[in-house]
Amino acid sequence: MPRDRIKTTREDATGFEGEAKRAREKSTLKPLDETALANFVQRKHLTEAAHEQPVTPPDPPRSTGDHADSDAAGGAEDTHRLDGQPAADVAAAPSGQRNTELGGDLAELVVPPRARSGETLHLTLRLRVLNRHVEAMNTLAAQGIKPDVVLRQAYGCLPPIRFEPHYVPRVAEPSGPVAWNHRVTVTVVKATLQAIEAQVRDGASAPRSHLLLGQIERAWFACVDDTIMELST
């Protein structure tokens, strides 16, 4: 049995039952301006013609005394700027070749070979302070004398370091703060170091600084003691 259709008691509010509204007869768009179009085409032709014309690049500026001329009689010399600052290093180029990118003639950099001896070694050692130095150095720091000042002055009093071919044990006293270590670079003959290594068990694998510091520490600690006493008075 078919269902009864739903009867509506309200008026149709959708608006579809009324007559359709007619489209506007007149367009809101303005007519095309023929004069503006002609001016646009003319400007386009002028722009394209300007791009097609060849442009001659200007001559690059020449350098006016940024570098010194090379000495033809005495060979090439180090090149410096007029303001006193050293010129930048220039890579080696074939003889007679000129660097046209930088402008001007550049001399070839000549570095004499450095004679290096295979008989010596340059090592870095750290001279420590002892725990008994800490209190006195803190007192000096409170007076405005920093620990690095004390250590530099003490190192200036240290006699010239010359290593002997025999092993000297290090001073067996507790160390102070590691931050107060004074780093120095020393030179030792390779044969001397090998002789010291041979006198210590597993000396070849031991740190080289521990093999050498024993010959310095006693004189170093004496200089630290004297410097602290001198600055404390």
Element layout with pairings:
Elements: H1 34-52, E1 120-127, H2 134-142, H3 147-156, E2 182-189, H4 190-198, H5 208-212, H6 217-232
Antiparallel strand pairs: 1-2
Region (Disordered): 1-82
Biased composition (Basic and acidic residues): 1-33
What does this structure look like?
- The chain is mainly α and 233 residues long.
- It has helices at 34-52, 134-142, 147-156, 190-198, 208-212, 217-232, and strands at 120-127, 182-189.
- The chain is elongated and about 110 Å long.
- The protein starts with 33 loop residues before the first helix and ends with a helix.
- Residues 1-33 have a biased composition (Basic and acidic residues).
User: What form results from the Cα inertia axes?
Assistant: elongated
Care to count the β-strands?
2
Unreliable residue stretches: 60-93
Task: Give the helix/strand class.
Answer: mainly alpha
What is the typical, i.e. mean, pLDDT? 75
Largest sheet, in brief, is: 2 strands, antiparallel
Helix content: 25-40%
Largest sheet strand order: 1-2
Radius of gyration: 45 Å
Order of helices and strands: HEHHEHHH
Beta strand %: 5-15%
- The tally of helices reads 6
Distance between the termini: 125 Å
